[in-house]
Amino acid sequence: MKKMVKKQIALALFGLICICAAFGQSQENLDTAIQRVCNEIINKLVMGPRVALVSFNSSNELSAYVLNEMTRILTRNRAATWISRQDTDRALSAANLSSSDNLSDATARQIGRTLNASFVITGILENTGGNYRIKSKMIYVSNGSVQASSDIVIADSSQLRQLLGSGNIAAAPAPVTPSQQTQAPAPVQTTPPAATQPAPVQTPAPSSTSQSSRGDPDAANWDIAVLDTAANVDYLTDIEKDVILEMNKVRTDPKKYVELYIQPRLRYFNGRNYSVPGQITLVTQEGSAAVNACITALNRASSAGVLTPERGLSRAAKDHVTDQSRTGQTGHNGSDRSTPETRMRRYGVFRGSWTLGENIAYGDATGREIVCSLLIDDGVPSRGHRDNIMNRAFTQIGVGYGTHTQYRTTCTITYAHGYTSN
Fold this sequence. Notes:
Elements: H1 2-17, E1 21-22, E2 27-29, H2 30-44, E3 50-57, H3 60-77, E4 81-82, H4 85-94, H5 105-114, E5 119-128, E6 131-140, E7 146-156, H6 158-164, H7 224-227, H8 238-252, H9 254-262, E8 269-270, E9 273-274, E10 282-283, H10 288-300, E11 308-309, H11 311-327, H12 340-346, E12 348-362, H13 367-376, H14 384-390, E13 396-404, E14 408-421
Parallel strand pairs: 1-7, 2-7, 3-4, 3-5, 11-13
Antiparallel strand pairs: 5-6, 6-7, 8-9, 9-10, 12-14, 13-14
């Protein structure tokens, strides 16, 4: 475990060194432009630095939409420690500012210091000569250097006009500097208008059930009696039980899992767009390449034993879900600075030769979607989530699932061997 932590620190330093790059220019619609900005940011940050998405200057409605979309995309990827919108909005409000203001670099850095952030991200919508452009930059809080910038022309402005509520926007106001902070702005809108609110693929509000109320439509393909190790426990919800069932399926027969659930996804890709009929299109980072990599890896993988549920591990997972449901944070450390190991030790002990791990998924609404998302591991170069699922050293599992203020759902999965619940 300590070696893994040291490796992540080294990768974080490498990411900071390589972060200086321009995003370039291209023509997009609003959603794909937002996705491209986020992808470029994610590609330059590798696990570690604290980053705050501070402001996007436009109308309140459009500002809220862009910030919510960027927050959803960025923190789902877990490329860094993303500071929650609630904390950022509180810092802005304390400085008599709003997330829809045009902040000067100095003011953005001031907010970043308040949040103990390494980097801050700001953006603006401009209308120059009838062309809408999204401009954004990431600023290094320590010295004010601009680490990355974007300038993207929005060729399809129909969605913009709907959000703006008119056919045009005024020229951007002068950036707000600390000396101009004299009057508190109206509070920022926390969700985009209902008519245009985006949603992740298959992300309804969480419930206690998934799939077909525990009736697996593919039961004929699997020995459910052996694989559904959590079927009779009384401390897991149905969707938490489904997560364990899906993991046991792929661990015991990865090739069959590919054939039934991973391979069919390829038909829904058009470049990086993943479009399932009747669902919101998701713009991925790698497109079908991540799915193909998953297919190759699982077809080469050896089977692993089934995971059995452990009450203490699930209590640890549920603690983290409860914490992040309340704070809106992401990542493996709790708001009380707890780690996966310290949370597990609250409810049990490790004996003999032991090991542990943790996966977290955001925005998925069924056990199968949670597991498939972690297996594909889009945008995660190490594919560490897939490795955890297929790790033969793990024999025990705990699951917690709940709501999340930014991504609607979150699921923490704890793995171990040699663990005994109190």
